[in-house]
Amino acid sequence: MLPFERPDRRPEDALRLVSFTPGIAPHAMGSVLVKFGHTQVICAATIENKVPAWMSRQGIGGGWLTAEYSMLPYSTLDRKARESSQNRSDGRTVEIQRLIGRSLRAVIDLKKMPSQTLWIDCDVLQADGGTRTAAITGAYVAARMAIERAMREGKMVENPFKEAVAAVSVGEYQGRPLLDLCYLEDKDATVDANVVMTASGQFVEIQCSGEEATYSPETLQTLLALAGKGVKELLTLQEAALEKVRRMA
Known about the structure:
The protein is of the alpha+beta class. It contains six helices and nine strands, in the order E-E-E-H-E-H-H-E-H-E-E-H-E-E-H. Helices cover 34% and strands 28% of the residues.
């Protein structure tokens, strides 16, 4: 039997090459191009001095954070039609942008953003698996950049973030537990999971499913431990990117 080898020859517990390029969208308060291997996502954060109408109607104090997500037409091998041209958003897009919003709201104190909305826009330039986890990981960096800039400019009194958050995919492929699946692994995985975790090791969300298969409690624990390792590495990379931005500010 031939030895197991991943399509990109990574070790089973290794992330793809991850990088953050800040300032990719100059008109945003904070922005970054995040790369997980060949997956590339632009994440931009904008602060508006207003909150959604439903908050005002219900008398809810503080601010709000919301996210939008899209895959550009040329992000996949076959052109993906713009949702605006079809006058609708597909279920996957809605699911992912809600996930991004939930993930960041889990680590932010909205009471410290009175009458302000933090918008997160994530646009996929190239998709090779893990677009939602890359978007969450990059969105945190862009959001922190926006918050810290607002504080420097006197537009915000204190940092509302309680801790960092990042996300990574894990799965079982050819009987092996793998970290950070690329598309070739993801499409044939028997178990596929997206895990969102905070810097303190708490879970925000676990999306795990068997792909025409079942999985044991032991397999789930193995995958969660693998995700924890990956998220810890991503958190370190996030902080390094933010420190670089701070030195340039």
